[in-house]
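Section: protein folds

Sequence with per-residue tokens
===
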Amino acid sequence: MNALMNPVYDAERFGLHIAASPRHADALVVTGPVTVNMERALKDVYRQTPDPKIVIALGDCAMNCGMFKGSYAVTGPVERHIPVDVRIPGCPPRPAEILAALSELRK
């Protein structure tokens, strides 16, 4: 995600910005599995993001828990807790793949 904002990928040219607060965001990007400690925080942030919102599961860990599957601290993938609109596979996904998926989403 951070590489998307550097001069090579320059996601801001497409109108994409990283918001510091969920109240100012149009999309919620989750980059890892949901853990016991973060489950409540994820649901709170989801409620704070204004409608209409898009939830993006970024990477294998967010989609299916990846290498953390079966861990005592993991309660499951993102879609078990909140509805997911876009899934971007990879471990981690390359910036170009993320940008392509976000560009497709804009259409």
